[in-house]
Amino acid sequence: MFQKTSLVDGRGKRVSTQSKQLFCFGLGFSGQALARVAVDAGWRVCGTVRSPEKAAQLRAQGIEAFVLDAAGADADADAVPAEIFDALQQSSHILQSVGTAKSGHDPVLPLLAPMAASLRPQWTGYLSTTVVYGDWQGATVQETSPARSTSSRGLARLAAEAAWADLGWPLHIFRLAGIYGPGRNALETVRSGRARIIDKPDQVFSRIHVEDIATAVFASMNNSTASPGSAAIFNVCDDYSCAPGDVIAYACTLLGEPVPKPISMDEAGLSDMGRSFYADNKRVSNQKLKDVLGWQPAFPTYREGLDAIFSELRASPVD
User: Which of 137, 189, 231, 287 would be 165's cystine partner, CB 3.0–4.6 Å?
Assistant: First the structure.
C-alpha cells in the first residue's frame, strides 16, 4: 500500500496522491516521461510495452510494465493477460498513448470492450495530434478551431478521439505538436548527417518537448475539468511556432556544423509521408492549457529545449 503523500499541481495547490494509480497503454517516448513524473510523485504506475526486455527495464524503475502489443495485427481481447485487467480495475486514471493501427482504427478500444462497462476511472486521457486541424495557411489554431484535416492520419485520429469520448468516461484529449526530447531531436539529426532544410517560404510548425508533455498531462490528471460523458480538449505545444529550418540551423550552431543550404522537396526526394508533413501550415496556441490548468512549459521555445539536451550531451559524450 502506498503511503499518503502530496504534491504541488499546476496551480500550486497541494493535492493528495493516496490511492492514485495510472494505467498507460503504450509506455513509449511520451508515456515513459509521464510515468517518471507520476512515480516520483508517489503514484503507482502500470502500463504496456511490446517486449519483455523493455518491461524488465521499466520494472527496475518502479513502473509495473506488462507485455502487450496493442497495435499488433493479432491483438484481440482474448489475448490480454488477466493481470492487465486486474491493473485496469484498480486504476483511477487511464491514458491511451498508442497510435492508430495500420487499419486506421484505435487499437486499444477493442481490447477494452469486454470490460469497459465495469471500469469507472476518475480520469481518462487520449494522446492525439495537432494534425487533426489540417492546413490553416500559417494562421493560429485553438481548441475551438474546426478540425479540418483531410489526411488519412488526421481523420483516423479524429475518429479515435470520438470513439474514446463515446465510452462516457471523463476524458481529456491532448492534441500534441511535433514531439522532441533526449535522443529524438534536431541535434541527433545533424550529428547523423541527415539534416536538411526544405525551401518552403512561410512554412511554420509547432513543437513540444517530451518533458513538457509529461507535466501538462500530469497537471490534467490532478485537475480534471471533464465529467462523465464529456471531453475536454487541450493543445500541447510550446510558445513559439517557427520554420523547421530554424531549428536545424540552431542545432548546427550548437554543434559547430555548417548549416545546410535550403533545397526543394523534389531535390530532397521526400516520401509521400514526408511531403504530407509539409502539407499543413499552422501555428498552435497553448493558451487554454495555461489558463485552465495553470501549466507553463519548462522549454518555451526550441532553443531552451535544445540547449538543455546539448548540455546533457556535453556532460555525457558518446563515442
Answer: 231
d(CA 319, CA 316): 10
Confidence of residue 10 (pLDDT cuts 50, 70, 90): very low
Residues 222/9, Cβ–Cβ less than 8 Å: yes
Contact 168, 228 (CB under 8 A): yes
pLDDT tens-place string over residues 160-208: 999 999 999 999 999 999 999 999 999 999 999 999 999 999 999 999 9
pLDDT tens sequence across 24-61? 999 999 999 999 999 999 999 999 999 999 999 999 99
Q: Using an 8 Å Cβ cutoff, are 65 and 48 in contact?
A: yes
Q: What is the pTM of this model?
A: 0.91
What are the cell numbers at 198?
526544405
The number of beta carbons lying within 10 Å of the beta carbon of residue 45 is 29
Q: Give the 3-state DSSP-derived string for the chain, with helices as H, strands as E and coil as C.
A: CCCCCEEECCCCCEEECCCCEEEEECCCHHHHHHHHHHHHCCCEEEEEECCHHHHHHHHCCCCEEEECCCCCCCCCHHHCCHHHHHHHHHCCEEEECCCCCCCCCCCCHHHHCCCHHHCCCCEEEEEEEHHHHCCCCCCEECCCCCCCCCCHHHHHHHHHHHHHHCCCCCEEEEEECEEEECCECHHHHHHCCCCCCECCCCCCECEEEHHHHHHHHHHHHHCCCCCCCCEEEEEECCCCCECHHHHHHHHHHHHCCCCCCCECHHHHCCCHHHHHHCCCCCEECCHHHHHHHCCCCCCCCHHHHHHHHHHHHHHCCCC
Contact yes or no for 294/218 (Cβ under 8 A): no
Distance, CA of 34 to CA of 11 (rounded, Å): 18
First CA to last CA distance, the chain: 44
The per-residue pLDDT of the chain, averaged, comes to 90
